[in-house]
Structures are given as C-alpha cells and as structure tokens.
Amino acid sequence: MNPDLDRLQPYPFQKLAALFREVTPNPALRPIALHIGEPKHVTPQFIKDALIGGLNGLANYPTTAGSDALRGAISDWLARRYGIPAPDAKTQVLPVNGSREALFSFAQAVIDRTREQPVVVCPNPFYQIYEGAALLAGATPHFLNTLPESNYALDFAQLPDEVWQRTQLIYVCSPGNPNGHVMSLQEWQALFTMSDKYGFVIASDECYSELYFDATPEGGAGAPPGGDVTTEVDAETASRALGTPASVRGHPPLGALQAAQQLGRSYDNLVVFSSLSKRSNVPGMRSGFVAGDARVLEKFALYRTYHGCAMNPAIQTASIAAWNDETHVAENRRLYAEKFSRVVEILQPVLPVSLPDASFYLWVRTPIADNAYAQALHRDYNVSVLPGSFLAREAHGMNPGHNFVRIALVAELEEAVEAAQRIAEFTKKL
Q1: Model confidence over 5-59: pLDDT tens digits?
Q2: How many domains does the chain have?
Q3: 266 and 311 both lie in a single domain
Q4: Does one domain contain both 30 and 52?
C-alpha cells in the first residue's frame, strides 16, 4: 500500500466522535448538530426539476470537459458575479464533482515529485483536504497561522525563504473556513507577488463566496465588517448584474480572478475552486468548477481524464439551471442573515462573538479548553460544535485553533435559536 496513507491524520469529525464517546448526552434534550458545515436549507424545486429533465443524459458517457452549455453558464456567471471579462469557456473553465474532489486531485496534478522536497503551503486552521492532498502528492505541508490579532490575514514571514523556494502550491480559502475572513485586494497583491517570485500555483478555495451579508434598507445584517468587496464594479452594480432584488442588494466578497483583473494581471498560476453545495443547497449533487490559468487547467484536465471525474449529464443539466439563477441564492443569504442576527444577539452577552466577513460559521473563543467546552456542551445540552484545535496543526509554537470552537449555523432558524439559547445557558454556568 501507499506508505503516504499512514501520514494522514484522523478527520476532525472522527476526533469529535471519539471525544463524544466519552460522555452520554442529556437524553431530555433533542440533539442539535452545529459541528459540520452541511447546508440544511431546502434544495430549490427548479433545480430538482432540471435534474429530472436531464435524466435522458444517463444514456450517454459524459466527457471530462463537460458540456459546452455548462462551461458557458459558469463562464457567464463568473463575468456577472465579479464584473470581469468572461473567461474562455473552453480553456479557462472546467466542471468538477464538487470542490472537495477537485481540491484534492489538483495537488496530484500540480506537484512535481522529481523536484527536491516539494512543499504545499496551507492556512492554519484549514480544511483538512489540503493537507491530505499534499501528503498523497508526495509533498510536505507547511502552515501559515491565521490569527485574530491580524484579522486572520496570511503572514508570509512565518515561513523562511528556503521553504518558499521549495513551495509548488498554496491553498487559500476566502471567505475562510473557519473564520469567515475575506481576503482584501492588498492581501491578494502580496500573494501574487510571492507567486511571481517563487513560481508556485495558487489554489483559491471560494466555496463560501455567495454566503455574504446583504445590505437592506431597514438596516438588516448589513455589510461585512471586514475584508474587501467589489471595487472596480461597485457592490450595487454587481448585485444588480446578478439579478438580486433591489431590497437585498449587498456586498459580494472579492474573488481571486477579480483581484487579478483589478491589479492588471493575467491568471498565470491562479486557479479558483467554487461549488453549488453552499450557494444553492445541493451538497448531494457534487457540482462545482475550477477556473483560471489555461495552461494549468489543460494539464489538470489531462489528469482528470485518467482519474475518471466526468460529471453526470443530469447533474450538468441541473447545474446549468442553478448557475443561471440568483433569486434562490439571495433567499438563501436572507435565511442565513436572519439566523446570524438572532444567534449573535443571544450569544454576545456570554461569548465574544461577532459577524464574520462571510460564510455560515461563527469562530468563537471559549472560556475553557475548546475540546472540554465542546464535550461538556454535548453532554449537558446535547448541542454539538467542533473544537477549533481539531481544525488546526501545531505550527510556529502553537495550535491556532486552541480555545476556539466552530459553530455552523446550518440548522433551521428555530433549531439554531434553541441551540444558541442552550449554549448561552451552558456558558453562563462555567
């Protein structure tokens, strides 16, 4: 067997299951799961209808490149969403079966094992797929701690020059998991400068890009408290182009392709990853895309031809319908904003919580050790949250997830509010 498999660490939810096995949850309370970032809102009916309408496609083998119609829909969406020239649908866009499989397989295609001690750089805390992808590609992961005192920005000085010299790939996530941080134009400029200097490829994970806070005339959730939004195309123009109702036009987070355009750059060594799972509440469809550097995507497509990653034709049909509609996405944001507003109001008297820039997570500092907090909350109040230390690694003398928990506001409003009330009551007793 591949010896690199033995280098993989248990997944965060495996660690959580082991932690929870040590206690018995309160049987008087129904369980409420806020530990996993799985969307729970109802899948829009028009997407289901499109899926059914595409079932005749099951009689055909799909191509790795996907249909012209799907690639065109994705290209057009990128242009509308980010106010950029439409990427070439044939060379700069590639459908994938959800961002997770693409983030993993991308490293297998990018990493050159013949070069000495290849490195993949990851933010810390992070989505564990990045680390697993690096290890199974024969690379060593190195970490950049993202900390609240620096607004979770990447600090490239944490790694020495000799590590950057060996770096072939960096994963970034904006909006971030777990902290919701949106990278600013200045952060992108610094990252592009590093890529130019050392020649590494940037993999920008943007699966939370559509879960931002819309502005409303009544005040509502308001704009994100930090990060960058569309600047070359202002937020109002971008929201109008997306077809968002005037009452909820908001502040879409800045994306990597958009940042490159604003800085007058090409997409050399830049690939973005996006998904319908969170945007359109279809995690079971496994549908997303990669877009960016045509040279890199040509090689990635070659890898995928052998990997067997072609998207189901019926899923392609449903995906076209989803990418072409924004009304359901605005409604999705409204539902999340309502939950954030209610939950933050309940938790603020007892925990240091505030709205993230974007995403559906709260990243909350705990008054006791994060694993002890999560375990006791599960035992006494039957609410599950994820210890932050399970999402991070020891790096530069610390685990940046220690004494934090990630709360995923994926449950329906009533359940999320009840969970917040239990968390508040539990925390008051500490």
Answers
A1: 999 999 999 999 999 999 999 999 999 999 999 999 999 999 999 999 999 999 9
A2: 2
A3: yes
A4: no
